[in-house]
Design goal:
Elements: E1 2-8, H1 17-27, E2 33-36, E3 40-45, H2 52-60, E4 64-70, E5 78-81, H3 92-99, H4 103-114, H5 120-129, H6 138-145, H7 153-162, E6 166-174, H8 175-185, E7 189-193, E8 195-198, E9 201-206, H9 213-227, E10 234-238, H10 244-249, E11 252-256, H11 260-263, E12 268-270, H12 277-280
Parallel strand pairs: 5-6, 5-10, 6-7, 10-11, 11-12
Antiparallel strand pairs: 1-3, 1-4, 2-3, 8-9
Length: about 290
């Protein structure tokens, strides 16, 4: 059995019952269950539809997301999340670079790296080198003034943890940011790169080894093994090319507002919903949410 979940943007709430009935009838699905009126609904299917991606494209044009997945075991026991442009709405290195007067240049490199056009580690070192001499106090200023959280993140963390889940934040960014984001949202642990500082200034380098694509895979392996759960018990979320390894290995890999080349390699793509979509696709109803 499979489950089809249709999600609208929480601000638009434009999911109509007539559309659901039409799709359910076309696919021979079971009864529609509303997880949140006008926003999210699901129904069971006997098989994976052959035209899933054509329907997905049609729904995208209507501002709706579609996820079709096996029904069994979809509620996961661990969340493994990227940080930049996933749990927060910014790229931290771009914000630091803007403060250093090289924002546009660094943002261009970041976009290409996240799209998989550049080697992640080389691109990281190139960008960090441009921050040399920046006052380390700017990090706290960026955290205070520029970092905003992706909608739905607090509810995602609180609900999964209330149901026995573990949450790990794994970023190719910097510990100076992941520590605060993890604390604010309630992650159990966080991993990232460490910006090197001397005499109160950024040196333009990071500690080794660099946390990139492979390190995110290793985090999935290590944390799930430590918890005594299978990798299939993990739901992972990210938006960049360096997330693809962990997204492919996790039981559910979610490309959230991802770069097109990244989304194309993932079966679960959320382009219109927010982080609460990760709860809905696990079968949580809005009335099950904690702290929202």
């Amino acid at each position: 059995m499979f489950i089809a979940t249709i999600l609208a943007n929480p601000q638009a709430r434009n999911l109509e019952g007539s559309l659901l009935e039409s799709l359910r009838n076309a696919w021979g699905g079971g009864d529609v269950v509303w997880l949140n009126p006008d926003e999210t609904a699901e129904f069971p299917l006997p098989a994976m539809p052959d035209n899933r991606w054509q329907v997905w494209e049609d729904l995208q044009a209507m501002g709706l997301d579609l996820v079709v997945q096996p029904a069994q075991g979809r509620r996961r026991r661990m969340l493994l999340a990227d940080m930049d442009s996933t749990m927060i709405q910014q790229e931290c290195i771009d914000e630091l670079a803007d403060m250093a007067g090289v924002g546009a240049h660094v943002a261009g490199i970041t976009a290409r790296a996240m799209n998989g056009e550049l080697d992640f580690e080389a691109a990281l070192l190139e960008r960090v080198a441009l921050l040399r001499g920046l006052d380390a106090g700017v990090i706290d200023q960026v955290l205070r003034e520029r970092i905003t959280y992706m909608p739905g993140g607090a509810a995602l963390l609180a609900t999964m943890k209330a149901n026995g889940g573990h949450a790990a934040l794994v970023s190719g960014g910097f510990t100076a940011f992941t520590a605060q984001v993890a604390k604010t949202l309630g992650f159990d642990e966080n991993r990232a790169n460490t910006l090197l500082v001397e005499a109160g200034k950024l040196t333009g380098d990071v500690a080794r080894p660099i946390l990139g694509r492979q390190a995110k895979i290793e985090a999935l392996e290590q944390i799930s093994a430590r918890l005594g759960i299978a990798e299939a018990d993990v739901i992972a979320v990210g938006d960049g090319a360096n997330d693809l390894g962990m997204l492919a290995r996790a039981g559910t890999g979610v490309a959230l507002h991802a770069k097109p080349s990244v989304a194309a390699q993932c079966d679960v793509r959320i382009n219109h919903g927010d982080l609460t979509a990760l709860l809905y696709i696990q079968g949580y109803a809005r009335t099950d949410f904690v702290g929202a």
